[in-house]
TrEMBL record:
Residues 100-214 form the DUF547 domain. This is DUF547 domain-containing protein. The keyword Signal applies. The lineage of its organism: Bacteria, Pseudomonadati, Pseudomonadota, Alphaproteobacteria, Rhodospirillales. PANTHER family: ELECTRON CARRIER/ PROTEIN DISULFIDE OXIDOREDUCTASE, ELECTRON CARRIER_ PROTEIN DISULFIDE OXIDOREDUCTASE. Residues 1-30 form the signal peptide.
Length: 285
């Protein structure tokens, strides 16, 4: 599988080339801004109701595995019809839930699991693909990927993946760990966890996801004397302190000692990278 890398230098080179009239592919989708959809702020802080994510957990245990490179991969090509049907049943159960009646922790787990299960379902419907960005079902002449298409209806409102991430999760919770929870089916993305998010364990799970990504070379590494980070920290810098210094401080919060010591030597980011290759086993088994 050919890696589809995006980097800050690639982007700057593209911009320079375009300035002199060259035609080059756009290196990455533009990052949407957080744009609150107020209706989804409704919640019940006194609610003790929980949502059953067992079907999603069964799917994850069966088809997600950790590779030797530390990247969790999904065996999309091995998913049988029975499990496709079970996944659809899980999504139907979620979309039939009146999520506004739950507490905040249950809501976060709900939206994160819905986003991830929807993404897997979209990949399965279009399999095989080399990258999610080839699934150009979003509206618009220059659509890139599936993120803008309305995929489900919750409480009477049609929702896209972008709506879930950028109009619900990011603006309501204002927690940078959102970016470690949602998975866009790419090697460069934080891992799709092998267990669902749950309200009861949410904070622990988000911290684990953050530490796993930050301490993997996809998150942050020192290469040739400069700090290289995931492009997520560039695209969504506003969520990580709004500056290189803010990003570095965020990384230090979750870095293991060896990385934390290295980060002390940097006040700026040298480059950023992201691999859009599909997060499937190399054999696609």
């Amino acid at each position: 599988m050919t890696a589809r890398f995006v980097s800050r230098r690639t982007f700057l080179g593209t911009a320079s080339a375009l300035a002199v009239g060259a035609t080059l592919p756009v290196p990455a989708r533009a990052a949407p801004e957080a744009d609150l959809w107020p209706r989804w702020e409704k919640h019940d802080p006194e609610s003790t109701k929980t949502i059953d994510h067992g079907a999603w957990g069964d799917f994850l245990k069966k088809y997600v595995s950790r590779g030797p490179d530390g990247v969790n991969r999904v065996a999309y090509g091995a998913v049988d019809q029975a499990d496709r049907t079970a996944l659809k049943g899980y999504l139907d159960a979620l979309t039939g839930t009146r999520i506004s009646e739950y507490n905040r922790a249950e809501q976060f787990a709900y939206w994160a699991n819905l986003y991830n299960a929807l993404t897997v379902e979209v990949i399965l419907r279009h399999w095989p693909v080399d990258t999610i960005r080839d699934i150009d079902i979003s509206p618009g002449l220059f659509s890139d990927g599936p993120w803008g298409k309305k995929l489900v209806t919750v409480e009477g409102a049609e929702l896209s993946l972008n709506d879930i991430e950028h109009r619900i999760l990011r603006p309501i919770w204002q927690d940078p760990r959102v970016h470690y929870a949602v998975n866009c089916a790419s090697i460069g993305c934080p891992n799709l966890r092998v267990e669902p998010f749950t309200g009861a364990k949410l904070d622990q799970q988000l911290n684990e996801a953050a530490r796993t990504y930050v301490n993997h070379p996809r998150g942050a590494t020192v290469r040739n004397g400069e700090l290289v980070v995931s492009s997520i920290y560039e695209w969504f810098q506003e969520d990580f302190g709004g500056s290189d210094a803010g990003v570095i401080e965020h990384l230090r919060q979750y870095a293991e000692p060896a990385l934390k010591d290295k980060l002390a030597d940097f006040s700026s980011i040298g480059d950023d990278r992201y691999d859009w290759s599909i997060n499937a086993p190399v054999s696609r088994g």
